Amino acid sequence: MGQPTETNSPIVDQVLTRMRARAVIFDLDGTLIDNNSFHLISWQRYLKNIGKDISEEEYRVHINGRTNKDAIEYIYGRKMKDDEAMEYALQKEEIYRNLYKPLIKPVSGLIQFLTDLDNHGIPMAIATSGIQVNIDFMFENIPIRQYFKTVINSTHIKYGKPDPEIYFKTAKALGVPARQCLVFEDSIVGIKAAKAAKMRVIAVSTTHSKEELAGADMIVENYKPESFATGILFG
């Protein structure tokens, strides 16, 4: 990667300097799009069909940020082979996409923030516990595909978050040392995974309370400049 160029975005300059970042990695659900309430509703609709239910708290603790396989095994209370778990997961994810498509939008300020990072010469990647069909769904409805040099999903890893595998693999694909990667996450398990990879983390408070996100290096509400200016900074 070449040397960063000067930008007209002091916020991006400040964030990159403070976090000592040469690359930026984004989680997807709850981080690029504020969709976890739709995932919760789709899980509840899926579970209703099999005579089960899940509360918002149970979703946030046991489902949010985890791979579909881990989520399905939690729901059914047993280990499964990949193809069996995926069969169930695809049913749930179809409900989600049909539910969310009319309302899909990026987290506020995201597209300008990505543009500013790109203008600064910063490589970007997505590291998501989700599946490719949902990644494609996002790209088809939000014009941000061009910003991402690398996309790593649940099929590329053996261990889901909070294991750091996905972040180590993403850093390697970007060709940037893990300690020089900045991660944006919304989930507690995602923050734990990134910190275990020795990366700095900015948490987006779309899903969890600021108190729950205190393991991050910084907490913001969205990607607007004022959010970074007033965000909670640790250390």
What would you note in describing this structure?
There is one protein chain. The longest helix has 19 residues, at 82-100. The protein has 235 residues and is an alpha/beta fold. The radius of gyration is 17 Å and the shape is globular. It has two domains: 10-34 and 105-233, HAD superfamily/HAD-like (Rossmann fold, 3-Layer(aba) Sandwich), CATH 3.40.50; 36-103, DNA polymerase, domain 1 (Orthogonal Bundle). Strands 3-2-1-4-5-6-7 form a seven-stranded mixed sheet. It has ten helices and seven strands. Helices cover 44% and strands 11% of the residues.
How many strand elements? 7
Q: Write the element-wise H/E pattern from the N-terminal end onward.
A: HEHHHHHEHEHEHEEHE
- CATH-scheme architecture of the largest domain: 3-Layer(aba) Sandwich
Query: What distance separates the N and C termini?
Result: 29 Å
The poorly predicted ranges are 1-7
Report the CATH C-level class of the largest domain. Alpha Beta
Main β-sheet, spatial strand arrangement: 3-2-1-4-5-6-7
Supply the number of helical segments: 10
Q: Indicate the percent of residues in helices.
A: 40-55%
> The CATH topology of the largest domain is what?
Rossmann fold
Q: How much beta, percentage-wise?
A: 5-15%
For the record, the count of structural domains works out to: 2
Question: Overall mean pLDDT score?
Answer: 94
As a whole number of angstroms, the C-alpha radius of gyration is 17 Å
Shape: globular
